[in-house]
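Hi V.,

Quick status before I head out on leave. The structure for the redesign project is tokenized and pasted below; the design run finished overnight.
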């Protein structure tokens, strides 16, 4: 068993008890000295039974009753991930949360990395747009007067520079078979590669802008909810975000009453997230005046959404969760219905 530094110092300050040439009184005095030294050290150690239990963080109601009954809401001072593919209901959960926050009079911020937020849909969901700061990331650098806008390279991913206009991409064809057999196919391949390269660099630049803006908003404070919308960013790009960025966000927000929510297709913050919810659409209800109308001619009336809790740290609002557990002991899932609103 290793001995701590204070314990070693306490023992070294006392001579050996069984040293020759010492009387019984001297040995007794040294034993008492050792006991007193150990007693002062023991007073510095807090027993496990006296360690204060970490209280559950304050939460924000999402507006979905079944979900709030399970987890109690989104925790403040923590990072939450809401993931799922397109049309899975992830945006429905987000709008319900923002609507509940703005109705309570709190100011929210939405960092839109793909510039896909719809204010009309948010207003229909009950969001008070006067209480919402919408930051649109377009991947462009600030424009000067009479200067043409251009996309610039990102800093954190190390991709190539992408300027304004067309970019020629070099394709690797060691034997030259593609160009000799079909020059038009080689040209099409080069065009597609150039377009993919431009789109990839623009996506990285928008994500980088979103991270920088989120850092500024967290440092500035004053927001009850900050959302990073990476829903339309491919998982390949989202996974390139360094873990140091998520860790910095978690440490920055944990001492504030702000809730940080990340909307994405796949979770990427890993252990930095206190709550991870995965949305999935189970069924869609459509209506049409004609029963035999094709699917594209029917209106969406609503859909059934299933939310699975993949990670819930320090949320103890249901018997299926263990206090302080990172994951529930079994799959926790809630189902609810979202109705479409037509004007």
């Amino acid at each position: 068993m290793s001995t701590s530094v204070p314990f070693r110092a306490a023992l070294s300050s006392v001579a050996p008890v069984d040293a020759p040439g010492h009387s019984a009184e001297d040995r007794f005095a040294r034993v008492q000295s050792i006991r007193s030294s150990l007693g002062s050290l023991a007073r510095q150690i807090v027993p496990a039974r006296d360690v204060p239990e970490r209280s559950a963080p304050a939460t924000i109601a999402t507006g979905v009753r079944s979900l709030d009954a399970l987890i109690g809401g989104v925790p403040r001072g923590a990072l939450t991930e809401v993931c799922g593919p397109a049309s899975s209901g992830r945006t429905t959960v987000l709008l319900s949360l923002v609507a509940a926050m703005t109705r309570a009079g709190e100011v929210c911020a939405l960092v839109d990395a793909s510039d896909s937020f719809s204010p009309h849909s948010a207003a229909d969901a009950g969001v008070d747009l006067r209480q919402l700061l919408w930051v649109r990331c377009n991947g462009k650098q600030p424009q000067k007067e009479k200067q043409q806008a251009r996309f610039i390279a990102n800093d954190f991913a190390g991709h190539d520079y992408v300027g304004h206009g067309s970019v020629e991409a070099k394709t690797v064809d060691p034997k030259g078979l593609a160009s000799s057999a079909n020059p038009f196919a080689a040209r099409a391949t080069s065009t597609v590669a150039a377009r993919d390269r431009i789109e990839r660099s623009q996506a990285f630049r928008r994500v980088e802008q979103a991270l920088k803006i989120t850092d500024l908003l967290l440092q500035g404070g004053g927001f009850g909810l900050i959302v990073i919308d990476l829903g339309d960013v491919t998982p390949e790009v989202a996974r390139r975000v360094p873990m140091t960025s998520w860790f910095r966000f978690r440490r920055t927000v944990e001492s504030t009453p702000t809730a940080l929510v990340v909307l994405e297709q796949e979770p990427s913050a890993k252990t930095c997230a206190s709550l991870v919810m995965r949305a999935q659409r189970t069924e869609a209800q459509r209506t049409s005046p004609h029963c035999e109308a094709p699917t594209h001619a029917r209106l969406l009336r609503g859909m059934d959404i299933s939310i699975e809790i993949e990670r819930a740290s320090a949320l103890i609002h249901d018997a299926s969760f263990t206090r302080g557990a990172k994951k529930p002991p079994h799959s926790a899932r809630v189902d609810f219905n979202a109705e479409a609103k037509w004007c």
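Above is the designed sequence. Strands lie at 59-60, 74-75, 79-83, 108-112, 132-136, 225-230, 259-264, 275-287, 299-312, 332-339.

G. will cover questions while I'm gone.

Best,
W.
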